[in-house]
Write a structure and sequence with these properties.
Blueprint (H helix, E strand, L loop, with lengths): L8 H14 L12 H8 L3 H13 L3 E4 L3 E4 L3 H28 L3 H15 L1
Antiparallel strand pairs: 1-2
Length: 122
């Protein structure tokens, strides 16, 4: 995984796990890799992975079964989607609108691009 300087590494790791939950890699009540396994996979310090898992546990995205590991909390995908949509609408969309206005991009052009993008994904 390539990390950027915009966010703390443990937050980027937590975001990646959330992305994997959204993508269906991990389902409700399914075990996720151990902290050590994930740290090795991402080539990060175990303590950094621990912070990411702690953050997700505090947010009730994952939970720990003592002696068995971490599991995805029931409804985690729905919770992540809700939070990310709110973040997008509040932070990303206004910035995108500002750029569209500065560049003279009409909403119909965005619709055309969206259609092209969606066709590629099909």
């Amino acid at each position: 995984m390539n990390f950027n300087n915009d966010k703390a590494i443990y937050i980027q790791i937590a975001d990646r796990l959330c992305d994997e939950i959204l993508a269906g890699t991990y389902q409700d009540d399914e075990r996720i890799p151990s902290v050590r396994e994930y740290a090795v996979l991402l080539q990060v310090n175990t303590n950094t992975a621990v912070k990411a898992y702690d953050e997700l546990a505090r947010s009730e995205i994952i939970y720990n079964k003592r002696g068995l590991g971490y599991f995805v909390t029931k409804g985690a995908k729905k919770k992540i989607l809700k939070e990310r949509k709110q973040l997008f609408m509040k932070e990303k969309l206004p910035e995108m609108f500002r750029h569209m206005q500065l560049l003279g991009i009409d909403i119909s052009e965005i619709g055309e691009e969206w259609n092209r993008f969606s066709e590629k994904k099909s």
